[in-house]
Amino acid sequence: MSSDPLSPAPQPDAPAPLDGKVVVVPGGTGNVGEGLVRAFLLAGATVVVPGRSRERLENLAELTGPRLGERLVPLHAGYGTFAEATELADRIAADHGRVDHVVPSIGGWWQGKALWQVGEADWQRHFVATTTAHLAVARAFVPGLDAAGSYTLITGFAAREPYPQAGVISMHAAAVLMMREALSADLRGQRRVNNLLLGPVLSRSRPNGDPSWLTADQVGEAAVAVALAPAVQDESIQLGTVQDLHRELARIRA
Question: What is the pLDDT of residue 233?
């Protein structure tokens, strides 16, 4: 386990509410994804993390440590196209027999150009590719989710609040937010779909910032709470600060 102060020490005697459950975290090697993975492992789940980079998968396993790593399944696989995501979902279902929860943390922050300065390469990378990956993963995994399972999207405040020179990210985040609402409308309660709407997050790559900001592990704590709460469905849960987290955890756990 990493000695990073943002990574909480595992509690050997902690209960395992997700023991026997299979959780898939596309984007689990990223800054926020790492916290999601750690939280679900601490909750007792088997966590499958697909990714194209073997190096990043190996780094995640090293950061996770041997004890939690027993239930970590790094999977060298893509999910950026419809075909890749479908193949991935079929492979995981064949290997594990079920998928209980999916928590995509796809994409990241990018800032530096006004919209009229954005070139096609930037557009393809930060909007087209990431938005396509989100839809590819949703269409591949949502129909096969366990009936008591959940699908929780991770996106940021940029979905509702534009930031200078980050318009492409705001457009992507808004698309993902609407995708969740569209999924909820199509599913009509047949599966639980939610999203966590995040402010700035402290992580290993950004350890310093406002003390009111959430850490990646606290984002993971919120995602686990949502997965465990059958009454939480079709919600957009705003988590801008630690105070927001405490309020929402109390509501969800009640």
Answer: 97
